[in-house]
Write a structure and sequence with these properties.
alpha/beta; seven-stranded mixed sheet
Length: 392
């Protein structure tokens, strides 16, 4: 079970920065589009750094600590955080560090499969699940989510059966919690996944980058904590929950029956994390929970504010409150804006969203919207979107 929210007097992270301050930023979120566009697309949050992270980075700059990452503090920090937050005991001895989450899951999946091998995904799903694995010479097999955006175990079994029919190794890239939409997979669902994977000999790699971002009353279940997942892998990072995409790092965790494979990978040539990335994420896991616990209620207010705004300005849009993450999934098909409503909202509302088309099967007519912004920005964006559907 997650620990109770920490009592804190920290300010609301999402109400600190004005639009003018945010427009000074040079990251992709704020520079991809023209200055009149409100950007609610890529997974960046409009927050300042958590104080413990800022302090450790400032100290490194002041002392010229600009070398290579070393030591075990990062994996030890994740292990302690997982124990406190989720009651899950994952030993640092089951972990190895890697440049980022995408590198981690791509490397492990290519280790587990052969060139031309098949990787199962659950669309609509995070677009790099397609692009990086295709670039690595793997084929994608889809087992779509149900209409409720939950895992469809019957569809997953059929896909597992198909990808293993010729005897070649196959694997499954799970998104836990799911991006887009923020679905929190239950323990029963994940046990069903593990049972199917064992039955068909499919290896599971779980992308758990959004794991710290669960709302009150919801529970994150680490894939490796469920019965039958001992041959699986997880990839975790603090980068989404503490807004550290610019200084990435990640950790691959092996199930108890996959430790030898992870050890072989750890001893091979692969891209490790940056020193800044490990410093920042170590501080996040060790000292960043008060800041995280001030962020989550703010995100909760925004996910509920979005529901109210849609009801007022875009009543034809279908939206389910996410159980996790700050990424929402909007079904805009009733608005009759075509297959790519994101293009309409960019042109006519000057609001940038992610096109649902890039998320695979089930993405047409949908958009992904990032709620991790000032509530005034969210309000103005939805107002513009609504006005754009009533033009002329």
């Amino acid at each position: 079970m997650p620990v109770p929210a920490t009592e804190t007097t920290l300010p609301d992270p999402l109400s600190t920065l004005s639009l003018a301050r945010l427009r000074e930023r040079t990251s992709a979120k704020w520079r991809r589009y023209d200055p009149d566009v409100l950007p609610l697309w890529v997974a960046e949050m409009d927050v300042e750094l958590a104080p413990p992270i800022r302090e450790v980075l400032e100290r490194a700059i002041a002392t010229g600590d600009m070398g290579y990452a070393s030591g075990t503090a990062y994996t030890e920090a994740l292990s302690a955080f997982a124990s406190r937050r989720w009651g899950w005991e994952a030993s640092p001895g089951q972990m190895t560090t890697v440049a980022d989450v995408i590198t981690g899951y791509t490397d492990i999946l290519t280790l587990l499969t052969e060139p031309g091998g098949q990787i199962v995904v659950n669309p609509p799903v995070y677009p790099p699940f397609y692009s990086y694995l295709k670039a690595a010479g793997r084929r994608i097999a889809e087992a779509p989510l149900g209409d409720d955006m939950r895992l469809d175990l019957a569809a997953l079994e059929e896909t597992f059966r198909n990808v293993t029919a010729e005897g070649a190794p196959a694997a499954y890239l799970l998104c836990n919690p799911h991006n887009p939409g923020g679905t929190a997979h239950t323990r029963a669902e994940l046990e069903g996944v593990a049972a199917l994977a064992e039955r068909y000999g499919v290896r599971v790699v779980s992308d758990e980058i959004h794991a710290p971002l669960f709302y009150e009353g919801e529970t994150f279940v680490p894939y490796l904590s469920v019965a039958g997942a001992e041959r699986g892998f997880s990839v975790m990072a603090a980068s989404k929950a503490w807004n550290l995409a610019g200084i990435p790092a990640a950790i691959i965790i092996a199930g108890t029956k996959a430790a030898d494979e992870l050890a072989a990978y750890g001893n091979s040539a692969h891209h490790g994390p940056t020193h800044f990335g490990t410093l920042a994420q170590t501080a996040a896991y060790n000292e960043g929970e008060p800041w995280l616990d001030s962020l989550l209620p703010s995100l909760d207010r925004n996910r509920r504010l979005l529901a109210t705004l849609l009801e007022e300005h875009l009543p034809g849009v279908r939206y389910t409150l996410p159980a996790a993450t700050y990424l929402t999934w909007l079904d805009c098909r009733e608005l009759d804006l075509g297959h790519d409503p994101a293009a309409h909202f960019l042109e006519h509302a000057r609001v940038a969203l992610n096109s649902g088309l890039t998320f695979g099967t089930g993405g047409a007519g949908h958009v992904r919207l990032n709620i991790a912004t000032h509530p005034d920005i969210l309000t103005e964006a939805v107002r513009r979107m609504g006005a754009s559907t009533h033009r002329g």
